[in-house]
Amino acid sequence: MRFDILHTTDYRYEEPASEAYIEARLTPPSRPTQKILAHELLFDPDGPSSSYTDYFGNPTSFYSMVKRHERLTVTNRILTETAAPVLPDEALELTVGEARQIFSSVSTDVFDYLRASPAVPMGGEAAQWSRRWLRSDATLREAFGALNGAIHRGFRYVAGSTENWTPLSKIWKARAGVCQDFAHIMISVLRTAGLPARYVCGYIETDPPKGGGRLVGAVATHAWVEALVPGMEWVALDPTNDQWCGERHVAVSFGRDFADATPLRGTFKGSGGQKMTVKVVMKRAA
């Protein structure tokens, strides 16, 4: 499938800002499941920017504006061609117990994705879920699918119900949240079970063709999970939509949790506050 993606983030200040600095992780990688045909990242007002690759391998742009301005807009345009993933069937037929044993011997290579991170604590209720849904004798395919479905059924998607730093303990208690929270829950359970997992930020199709099912969380950036399987391959699952990720998902950035992969992070200098609006449209290209 070929998709046009337009992601616009608009900052409006109550009073003109004298300075602004933004770190953007908005450059999608080319992978077997996605080929980037064109990409353009624009900042308005125009200002100096530089780029680097962060610790997790994300291409990162750093923008600075040191002139007085009343508004700042970041526009990300992507043309991509996606393909259905080819799952590592042999690895997915290994049991959870076998995979856990393999990863325990190579923990230094996947250390960051096996331990707790600032937004993803381990243990507690995640331990109960790991025992229930990630049984040692279950195959990875069965276990991943079961956990994905359990989160989808057990938590309600409520737009705007949480903030970026809402503690995971509150999500467990409320049994409600947004895609970021669902991803964090799944990562916590997987890591508690001794299985490496990482957070993915990206885009999903906004409106499918007539008669198709619309994906939940399509009006902004979306979050899902990649779990590592023996053979060092990542497989992607979307607990918000209870499915293995496919051609309608475009990955942009990765990390231990949302803080590592957040699309935009920055600060400004001014005497008032700011209002941010975000709009994402991912549509099939002609």
Molecular structure report:
The chain is of the alpha+beta class. 22% of the residues lie in helices and 39% in strands. It contains 7 helices and 15 strands. It has helices spanning 89-92, 96-104, 125-133, 140-154, 168-174, 179-192, 258-261, and strands at residues 2-17, 19-24, 34-44, 49-53, 59-65, 69-82, 156-157, 176-177, 197-204, 222-229, 233-238, 243-244, 249-255, 264-269, 274-284. Helix 3 (125-133) crosses helix 6. The longest helix is centred in the middle third of the chain and has 15 residues, at 140-154. The protein is globular.
Can I get a quick summary?
The chain has 286 residues and is an alpha+beta fold. It contains 7 helices and 15 strands.
Describe how the helices and strands are arranged:
Elements: E1 2-17, E2 19-24, E3 34-44, E4 49-53, E5 59-65, E6 69-82, H1 89-92, H2 96-104, H3 125-133, H4 140-154, E7 156-157, H5 168-174, E8 176-177, H6 179-192, E9 197-204, E10 222-229, E11 233-238, E12 243-244, E13 249-255, H7 258-261, E14 264-269, E15 274-284
Helix pairs in contact: 3-6
Main sheet specs:
5 strands, antiparallel
Q: Could you list the spans in which at least 5 consecutive residues all have pLDDT below 50?
A: none
Q: What's the total count of β strands?
A: 15
Order of helices and strands: EEEEEEHHHHEHEHEEEEEHEE
Tell me the β content: 35-45%
Amino- and carboxy-terminal Cα gap: 10 Å
Classify the secondary structure makeup into a structural class.
alpha+beta
Fraction of residues in H or I helices: 10-25%
In DSSP terms (H or I, runs of 4 or more residues), the helix count works out at 7
Apparent shape? globular
Oligomer: single chain
Give the overall average pLDDT.
Answer: 95
Strand order of the largest sheet: 12-11-10-9-13
